[in-house]
Design goal:
single chain; Neuraminidase; 5-stranded mixed beta sheet; about 5% helix; KIB1-4_b-propeller; F-box_BR-signaling
């Protein structure tokens, strides 16, 4: 399909998946839920994700209620929050449902002294002043410590103490060969890591992998496999001069990363039982050009599809304007990834997009705060303080149904934190505690 051809939009709504057959003989008979054995009901109850679902289950069936299952201890379902943790790991974070900013309550010194370079699966990704990498759940206070970042080969990074925590980075040449004698670039902590994600939730998977995209070192990424590696390992990607616009983990044990300008994509396959990582490349077709996107995001939909979101026009002056387009990527014929426009992301779902931390969220529990089939993103805000102009970030809302910005008044939201708190990210609260031990590396 030509890149300038626009395919017919598809829908990810579950209503489109209903069986359209008229053969009554194929109908599935209704199950007698009340007659399920206690152990099976217990398995169902244990997998419910919030207190509301638990109450609905036990109140819907008198026999289930009489089984007297222990209270699961769920905390109330929480909406996505805007996280301001770039300079201070305790926050603040802004809850759109309440219009109030909060701070996380913890006293871990290793966390308080760290720089937050990302958020994944509800965990903060932190770089300490001693070069250690931490993953920290701000709700449960679980902490997983990974090796120091300069354990990567000496030809890539150095961490001289006399530079007060800054790094010496040795850029590679056009042939992807790291040259130890090349002139080093001095990089501050907050400028060292471009993007990073976890392959899975550390509370559920003790063998998770972290992938890091570094600034100033092209075509080489770093990864660490929990339980396998003792140091950070470089991996060379198969596409030269690939600029990572965004990356996203998926449920099928893969991490995808995209170059929004070249419309190219990489897939890091982590499904090998031997924990080997393979990298494959895709060329994305079906995305109209021009215009070239101002920003590109990747995320997984509620039904497991890989979505690509292009911000294809952004006017940063007042009044602010932007157009966002969603595509579902068909990966059935590699190395081609066919982009199919999406106009409906599923009943009750909304997209929350940011670099390295986008997600598809069921917002049906928050009808007064969020609207289905909308995209929530962070946009520039131009303002004045003490007679001087400045640029910060605030919340933008885009309606997929109408194809235009919605409920965007051009003003800051009530209760929005101080304007110059750095980069804003989405955080999806994770209330699961770690159930495995010996998590700190020697």
């Amino acid at each position: 399909m030509a890149d300038d051809a626009i395919p017919t939009a598809v829908s990810l709504s579950t209503s489109t998946m209903a069986d359209s057959g008229d053969n009554d003989g194929d109908a599935i008979p209704a199950a007698s839920w009340a007659s399920l054995p206690r152990d099976l009901v217990g398995q169902i109850i244990s997998r419910l994700t919030c207190t509301v679902h638990y109450l609905r289950a036990v109140f819907a069936c008198r026999r289930w209620a009489n089984m007297n299952f222990s209270w699961p201890g769920h905390r109330p379902l929480q909406p996505p929050v805007a996280l301001f943790c770039e300079f201070f790991s305790r926050g603040p974070y802004y809850n759109p449902a309440t219009g109030i900013s909060y701070y996380f309550s913890h006293s871990l010194q290793a966390v308080n002294d760290s720089y937050c370079f990302g958020a994944s699966h509800g965990w903060l990704l932190l770089l300490g002043t001693d070069s250690f990498i931490h993953t920290f759940n701000p709700v449960t206070s679980d902490l997983v410590t990974l090796p120091q970042l300069f354990t990567a080969p000496d030809s890539m990074l150095q961490f001289p103490a006399e530079l007060c925590g800054n790094y010496l980075v040795f850029p590679d040449t056009s042939g992807n060969q790291v040259v130890p004698d090349a002139a080093a670039v001095t990089v501050h902590c907050r400028d060292l890591i471009r993007l990073s994600v976890l392959s899975s939730d550390p509370a559920d998977d003790k063998n998770f992998t972290m992938l890091i995209v570094l600034n100033h070192i092209a075509d080489i990424y770093l990864y660490f496999r929990m339980g396998v590696d003792a140091a950070w390992v470089p991996i060379t990607i198969p596409l030269a001069h690939f600029h990572c616009s965004d990356l996203a983990p998926t449920r099928n044990k893969k991490i995808y990363t995209v170059d929004g300008k070249k419309m190219a994509m990489l897939a890091f396959d982590l499904s090998d039982p031997a924990r080997n990582i393979t990298v494959s490349s895709y060329t994305i077709s079906g995305v109209p050009r021009p215009p070239s996107p101002d920003a590109t995001f990747l995320l997984e939909s509620a039904n497991g599809s890989l979505l690509l979101v292009n911000k294809i026009r952004e006017v940063r002056a007042e009044p602010y304007d932007a157009v966002l387009v969603v595509f579902r990527l068909d990966l059935s014929a590699p190395p081609q990834a066919r982009a199919l426009p999406v106009a409906d992301i599923g009943a009750g779902n909304a997209l929350f997009i940011c670099e390295g931390g986008s997600g598809c969220f069921d917002i049906s529990a928050f009808p007064r705060t969020f609207s289905a089939n909308h995209i929530y993103f962070f946009r520039p805000f131009l303002g004045y303080e003490a007679g001087q102009a400045f640029e910060a970030e605030t919340l933008g809302i885009f309606s997929l149904e109408k194809g235009e910005l919605a409920a965007d008044s051009g003003r800051l939201l009530r209760g929005w934190p101080y304007l110059k708190l750095g980069k804003v990210r989405w955080l999806f609260f994770n209330f699961r505690f770690i159930r495995w031990y010996n998590i700190e590396m020697a």
